Amino acid sequence: MPQSTLRKFDYPQSLIKSYHHWYLLLRPDQPTLGSMVLVCKENVHHYSGISTEAADEQKHIISDIERILKHRFDCHKVNYLMLMMVDPAVHFHIIPRYEFPTEFCGKEFSDKQWPKAPSLIDHLQLDAIFKAELLKTLKSDFAAIEPSNKQSSNKMYRRMYTSGCFDIFHQGHLNILKSTKALCDYLIVGVSTDELIEQSKGRPPIIPFEERISILEANRYVDEVIPQIDKDKQKVVDEYQIDAISVGSDWKGKYPEVSCEMVYFDYTPNVSSTVLKQKLNITPKQTDK
């Protein structure tokens, strides 16, 4: 995982969508409205080094990007800049181009460099609230795209969400993922960041965030993995168009109120991260959720 490049562009806070082989991020500095960064998850420093699977997926992602930018902002062209000098991981700067001013949230924005090459030095002056709304809008737009290989399904839900620390992945985690996927077409899993775990538990996780993300992404029941940077579940429901959330049965009556349905599963007996850590003499007895 290209950690330094991701951090440079404010990952995980800036994540729009996590694909199988790529991360799509909102670019912190906006040369034009809707600028993004597409970062390959593979540990390669040359474009020729990416896998065939990553190259094939990139074609579909570019199609998603261009369709959404045209629909949302009516952009006229999209520039793709591949620099890889200061940040060596394979990534592209995605710069929408506008022949005419475009409007978003009551403000009008112009592409001052049109039709010349874009400038990465100059950028739009956007406050934190506006950037948050831009990120939320793009997350929702990309979440609405149906997979190209989607087949008709009789499952109860279209999109479900579950989350956790996943600090030492075990059979109980697997059972919840498997049971949740049996109910839905698309399963999104939130993985708590190291910072959130330390804030809520008073200690860092045993397994670093990047490794825990990779473990979940490799699971065949999981369609998309996103960072859980806070405990605002309703925000996830809104941004990712979630129909139902699954959680352990011990959360009945205690889970934060959300607008979607809730599905409760019984925990696998005698299996938890806390039990495993106690057996390994890693941590004192405490709730691992």
From TrEMBL:
Transmembrane segments: none annotated. The keyword Transferase applies. Keywords: Nucleotidyltransferase, Transferase. It comes from the Bacteria. The keyword Transferase applies. InterPro entries: Archaeal_FAD_synthase, Cyt_trans-like, HIT-like_sf, Rossmann-like_a/b/a_fold. Residues 162-251 form the Cytidyltransferase-like domain. PANTHER family: FAD SYNTHASE. NCBIfam families: cyt_tran_rel (TIGR00125). This is Cytidyltransferase-like domain-containing protein. It comes from Shewanella ulleungensis.
